[in-house]
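can u do me a favor
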């Protein structure tokens, strides 16, 4: 095939199948393993979940004074200790917390916080300073530093586009929205021809890169499609996209797919107006789906080797606004769930509502300290080289 014809066909195939969204993986070998060891599942609550109405300080009068209409009534809170409790929509996770399988870290943030969705998400996903702009994600750099010879889908995003958190300089994660996307790749005749017929090296570097990327796409799609058929979960997940995503992750785990990191998200948490019903519904979706997912992992003896981290790009302001909602804030809570936590329950005290920064919560724990803990203690990586600085241990995982 002539170079000009190849580029023309590659462009058409990429456009038709959205190949750039399916795969951002280069420089990664195809060494597969049936024993992946510990797995990490990252869940992003996009939009800025209101942490104060998720983990409720039901004994703090300042909370109710700041939220006369939005505050969760004390008699409705699912009490977890003498001061803090779950939003009632989080009821399905009560037993997880009380069984010592969940750690709630309060007041998580970073210095000089940014209240823009896009910028704050960028900071969280790249693991940067608030004034620093990075084009690689914290998990993508983990792949760069720690993942020689890994499969292209060693880190898998179950959304439609690859999150920047999984983008490295040389190695990236793989996107798999659903099995229909995989079938589109597998059945593409152009990619089939490349996979079967491309053996020679090309003098043009860009052409060779396109060949490699698209061949990796084809082989990875085949692998994941076959793994997706190995096991069908017998437990009923909620009939929503988030439940479907967690079901897909559980089935791939049970099939022993060569995937160490999974990334999922649940959006809609930007609750400026009419927050109560909207947030309650989203937390219900989150909690019900997580409950089923955790039970599924336990049934298949996968829970002890799985760590689930849930975060949002920022919390909300302490005081409700005039539209019965809350505006963009700063520090927030973060959840770690797993069967082998070294410290469960509430890791630290509730936010101090009498000591605010211009109406916002003050952060006490840098989110990168949690990333460092996950990288060093769970993923067996070198957090200092990935995050660019050294953070102290938290002793959670």
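np, heres the sequence
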């Amino acid at each position: 095939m002539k170079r000009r014809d190849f580029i023309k066909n590659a462009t058409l195939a990429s456009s038709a199948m959205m190949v750039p969204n399916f795969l951002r993986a280069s420089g990664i070998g195809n060494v597969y393993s049936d024993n992946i060891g510990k797995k990490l599942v990252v869940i992003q609550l996009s939009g800025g979940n209101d942490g104060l109405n998720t983990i409720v300080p039901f004994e703090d009068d300042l909370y109710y004074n700041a939220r006369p209409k939005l505050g969760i009534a004390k008699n409705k809170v699912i009490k977890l200790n003498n001061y803090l409790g779950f939003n009632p929509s989080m009821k399905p996770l009560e037993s997880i917390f009380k069984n010592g399988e969940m750690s709630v870290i309060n007041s998580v943030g970073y210095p000089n916080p940014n209240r823009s969705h896009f910028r704050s998400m960028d900071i969280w996903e790249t693991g940067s300073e608030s004034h620093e702009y990075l084009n690689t994600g914290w998990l993508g750099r983990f792949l760069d530093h720690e993942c020689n010879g890994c499969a292209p889908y060693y880190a898998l995003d179950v959304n439609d586009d690859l999150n920047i958190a999984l983008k490295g300089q040389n190695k990236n994660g793989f996107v798999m929205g659903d099995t229909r996307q995989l079938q589109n790749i597998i059945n593409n005749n152009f990619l089939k021809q490349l996979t079967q017929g491309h053996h020679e090296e090309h003098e043009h570097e860009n052409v060779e890169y396109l060949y490699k990327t698209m061949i990796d796409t084809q082989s990875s799609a085949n692998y994941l499609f076959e793994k997706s058929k190995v096991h069908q979960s017998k437990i009923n997940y909620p009939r929503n996209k988030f439940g479907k995503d967690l079901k897909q992750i559980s089935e791939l785990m049970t099939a022993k797919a060569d995937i160490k990191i999974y990334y999922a998200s649940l959006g809609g948490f930007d609750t400026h107006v009419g927050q109560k019903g909207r947030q309650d519904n989203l937390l219900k979706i989150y909690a019900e789906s997580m409950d089923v997912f955790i039970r599924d992992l336990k049934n298949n003896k996968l829970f002890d080797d799985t760590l689930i981290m849930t975060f949002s790009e920022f919390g909300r302001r302490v005081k409700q606004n005039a539209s019965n909602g809350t505006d963009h804030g700063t520090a927030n809570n973060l959840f770690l769930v797993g069967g082998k936590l070294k410290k469960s329950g509430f890791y630290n005290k509730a936010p101090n509502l009498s000591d605010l920064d211009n109406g916002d919560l003050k952060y006490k724990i840098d989110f990168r300290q949690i990333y460092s803990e996950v990288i060093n203690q769970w993923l067996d990586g070198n957090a200092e080289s990935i995050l660019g600085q050294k953070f102290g241990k938290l002793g959670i995982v």
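Residues 31-150+257-387 form a domain with the Alkaline Phosphatase, subunit A fold (CATH 3.40.720). hope that helps!!
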